[in-house]
Design goal:
7-stranded mixed sheet, disordered C terminus
C-alpha cells in the first residue's frame, strides 16, 4: 500500500552573503541585506492549493484591468512573486492566502552576525544557509507512516545533496530525542520557483515579515500573521540570555518587534554573540 504523501516547500528571502568578490566585506555597505529568511509550507492536498493559485493567475491574465500591468505582461513570463508584483496583484493574492486553508507555514529568521558566520559557519554561505534549513526542518518530520516530498527552491549554491544532509541531520536530532527512533521516508530535490505555484505562498509570507522587520511596515504582516504558524528568530541571542522565547506563535506569542531584540544592519560586529 502506497504511503500518503506530505509536501514540504522551502523558499528564501534575502541572501546569505557577507562578502563580495575578492573577499570584500559587504557588512555596513549599501545593498547589504542584514537578514536571511527561510520559509516552509507543509500541505497534504497539493492538487487543490495548486489549482486555486493557478486559477487566480489565469483570472488575472484574462482580465484587461490587470493583464497590461508590467509584472503580468512580462515577456519572460509571470508568476506570483511578492517583490516583483504590483500592488493590485499583491492585494488579490494576499486575499487568496488569507482565505486559503490546508497548509501550515514555518519561518526562520536568520540575523546576519559576522562573528557567528566566522566561528560557527566557517565563513561558508552554504553552511549558514543549510544550518537554517536544518532548524526549519527539525520537529517537522515526525510521521513514520507517510512519505515526505521535500522541495527546495532553486538558487545559486543550493543542491539536492546539501539539502539531504540538512534533512538527515534534522532526522538524527529528532530521533535522539525520542525513546524509540523512527524511520522517516522522504525524497528531496530543488525546483524552479516559476514552475511551482505553492512556493508563492511562503514567498508572500516572508516578504510581509521582512518588510515589518526592516521597514517597520506592519500592514501586510498584520494581514497575514495568522497564516504564520511558527516564527523562529534563530540567532536572537539576547532572548536566550534573558530566558525569553525566540519561538513565536500567532495565537500564544505573536511575533512583535517590541518583543525581539533590536535588528541591526551592521553585522553585529560591535556586539559579542553568545556562541
Amino acid at each position: 500500500m502506497d504511503k500518503k504523501k506530505i509536501y514540504l516547500f522551502i523558499d528564501e528571502s534575502g541572501d546569505a552573503s557577507f562578502y563580495a568578490k575578492k573577499n570584500k566585506l559587504q557588512v555596513g555597505t549599501e545593498g547589504f541585506q542584514p537578514l536571511l529568511l527561510l520559509g516552509l509550507i507543509i500541505l497534504e492536498d497539493k492538487k487543490e492549493i495548486h489549482k486555486k493559485i493557478k486559477d487566480l493567475q489565469q483570472e488575472i491574465i484574462n482580465d484587461s484591468l490587470y493583464n497590461s500591468l508590467k509584472c503580468v505582461s512580462n515577456p519572460k513570463g509571470w508568476y506570483f512573486h511578492a517583490r516583483n508584483d504590483q500592488p493590485e496583484v499583491r492585494t488579490k493574492f494576499i486575499e487568496l492566502i488569507r482565505k486559503m486553508e490546508g497548509f501550515k507555514s514555518y519561518i526562520v529568521i536568520g540575523r546576519k552576525r559576522l562573528d557567528l558566520f566566522h566561528k560557527k559557519h566557517n565563513k561558508s554561505e552554504s553552511e549558514f544557509y543549510f544550518d537554517m534549513v536544518y532548524h526549519l526542518l527539525k520537529d517537522r518530520l515526525n510521521k513514520e507512516d507517510v512519505y515526505y516530498q521535500i522541495l527546495l527552491s532553486t538558487r545559486a549554491g543550493n543542491s539536492g545533496e546539501k539539502l539531504k544532509n540538512a534533512i538527515e541531520k534534522a532526522i538524527e536530532r529528532d530521533n535522539n530525542k525520542r525513546k524509540t527512533p523512527i524511520t522517516i521516508h522522504y525524497d528531496c530535490r530543488t525546483i524552479p520557483s516559476d514552475k511551482t505555484p505553492e512556493l508563492s505562498i511562503i514567498d508572500y509570507l516572508m516578504w510581509a515579515l521582512q518588510r515589518y522587520i526592516l521597514l517597520k511596515e506592519s500592514r501586510f504582516y498584520d494581514a497575514l500573521v495568522q497564516k504564520m504558524n511558527l516564527i523562529i528568530d534563530l540567532y536572537d541571542f539576547e532572548k536566550f540570555e534573558s530566558k525569553s522565547s525566540n519561538y513565536y506563535h500567532p495565537k500564544k506569542n505573536k511575533f512583535e518587534l517590541e518583543k525581539a531584540s533590536e535588528f541591526k544592519t551592521d553585522g553585529y560586529i560591535n556586539k559579542k554573540s553568545n556562541l
